[in-house]
Design brief:
The relative contact order is 0.11. The two termini are 37 Å apart. The chain folds into 2 domains: 174 residues, Uridine Diphospho-n-acetylenolpyruvylglucosamine Reductase, domain 3; 129 residues, CO dehydrogenase flavoprotein, C-terminal domain (Enolase-like, domain 1, 2-Layer Sandwich). The protein is globular. It is α+β, with helices and mostly antiparallel strands. The strands form 4 sheets. It has a 5-stranded antiparallel beta sheet with strand order 4-5-10-6-7. It has a 5-stranded antiparallel beta sheet with strand order 14-13-12-11-15. The chain has 12 helices and 15 strands.
Length: 308
């Protein structure tokens, strides 16, 4: 049961920040409310004031900034991301992954900014966005600042946002041409047990006739650590590997990734189980990305798994 609260609807980001300063610990930022209202119903949070940011100009739009980065407003819903022509044109995997977030009722209400600000370790978007060099734009009474997503998410349900700041947008740097990717997540519970984002950018072979090779690789792992993370060692192992025969490099990179995570035993599985799953799914995601680079689409399907 929800306790009584006052809903404030500021028209500007400055007004929202001023309300947060004025109301202090009694206030919480409200966008989609999918997580916030649930915690309020459970009595885990009891704010007396909600500051609704959905009406603030720019917070519900998707655009390109002056540097051609895809800018997704904090109040943009998952459903809007899923259906956006601009997202499909600039960062198509983002739209595909958004289609697999929770269910359509949640996607119609839940927002990108709320998802990142909540810092759930099982966030699909936070994991995927790391491979797009994402940064989070924050508004405070003192102006705006940008933080790399990796610096914004500090741990489970903890971010670098201060009490007088609101998340304004997230900015993604689209991948260049000849880039192929896959996103794989596995789980038997409501939230995924494991999420893997893998990207391969190609370049012609060193001799000019030995086939495409990996010029750059990005691998992000979510759900098993306190926060999503990139695995630099695994990425380095893939650099220079031939796309036509990626099996050996993918296997070694997946082992490096499994050794680089720090999982804990919980209801989703033991730490050893999660490491093994990281190894399996990093390899699978890389092979799917490589198959797409070769112009073929793998037909294998994995129980309780989604491959986007």
């Amino acid at each position: 049961m929800l306790r009584p609260f006052t809903l404030h609807r500021p028209e500007t980001a400055e007004e929202a920040c001023a309300l947060l300063v004025e109301l202090g610990e009694d206030a919480a930022v409200y966008a989609g409310g999918t997580e916030l209202l649930l915690l309020m119903k459970l009595g885990m949070l009891r704010p007396r004031h909600l500051v609704d940011v959905k009406r603030i100009p720019g917070f519900s739009t998707i655009s390109l900034d002056e540097g051609a980065r895809l800018t997704i407003g904090a109040a943009v819903t998952h459903r809007t991301v899923e259906q956006s022509a601009l997202v499909r044109a600039r960062c198509p995997l983002v739209g595909t992954v958004a289609r697999h977030v929770a269910n359509v009722r949640v996607r119609n209400v839940g927002t990108v900014g709320g998802n990142l600000a909540f810092a759930d370790p099982h966030s699909d978007l936070a994991t995927l966005f790391l491979t797009f060099d994402a940064s989070v734009e924050l508004q405070s009474p003192h102006g705006r600042r940008e933080l790399p997503l990796d610096d914004f998410v500090l741990g489970p349900w903890e971010t670098a946002r201060t009490s007088n700041e609101v998340v304004a947008s997230v900015k993604l740097t689209p991948w260049p041409g000849e880039t192929h990717a896959a996103y794989a997540k596995f789980g038997v519970h409501e939230r995924p047990t494991l999420a893997i984002a893998a990207m391969l950018r190609l370049a012609p072979g060193r001799s000019g006739h030995d086939g495409d090779r990996v010029a750059e690789a990005r691998i992000a792992i979510g759900c098993v650590n306190p926060r999503p993370m990139r695995i630099a060692g695994a990425e380095a192992r893939l650099t220079g590997a031939p796309v036509a025969d990626l099996e050996s490099a993918a296997r070694e990179a997946s082992d490096i990734a499994a050794a680089g995570v720090d999982p804990a035993d919980d209801l989703y599985g033991s730490a050893d189980y999660k490491r093994e799953m990281v190894s399996v799914f990093v390899r699978r995601a890389l092979l799917v990305a490589a198959a797409r680079a070769r112009g073929t689409e793998p037909v294998a399907r994995f129980p309780h798994a989604v491959v986007a």
